[in-house]
């Protein structure tokens, strides 16, 4: 049995998602069926196959906050409303076997997500029961237009949204979605701060961990020099990314202190 993993991404996320894919495959004890939801091109890239169009209308696509914000809601449809699937944002690194997450019994719940402050839910890592989940994006945005709830309510699955669409959500072990921190309990680290992500900025306190996987992904052939070159040319990553978490200038300043 293959474990279905969907990654929300876009062309700006090319390098980070390939590092994530490497980390997933490195630790996996079962076959993985990996789908990239590429919001830039409204496409699905499954494993090493040619991309195909995603089943999302342009009207809905244009409501995205990021390139891929809404694509996670396509997952049950893509899976023909059968079985389970995992969703991950691309700016993450998996540090253990993803099957540990996949094998969690959802019971009566529609999906697992991270419990956040105020009773809201963080949907950047999810385990879905595709047989139970039906996400009607057209209906949600019609409700938003009618001011029944806000986009933020929908995006965070707040009580205002759940009053109209009562999904049963179970709490995800927070070690599966740890924001900008890592210790021995961390199963997946999520680099959430857009200004300090290691592929964009220097001296991230847990940047060495990301660069370990970055170099391993290159050695494994999952991340190519062309991927890096394109991302540099498009200004999606810093030009001196090969120097690692610390630039030569920052290393010199650390030595001189």
From TrEMBL:
<dbReference type="InterPro" id="IPR002495">
    <property type="entry name" value="Glyco_trans_8"/>
</dbReference>
<dbReference type="InterPro" id="IPR029044">
    <property type="entry name" value="Nucleotide-diphossugar_trans"/>
</dbReference>
<dbReference type="Pfam" id="PF01501">
    <property type="entry name" value="Glyco_transf_8"/>
</dbReference>
<protein>
    <submittedName>
        <fullName>Lipopolysaccharide biosynthesis protein</fullName>
    </submittedName>
</protein>
<dbReference type="GO" id="GO:0016757">
    <property type="term" value="F:glycosyltransferase activity"/>
</dbReference>
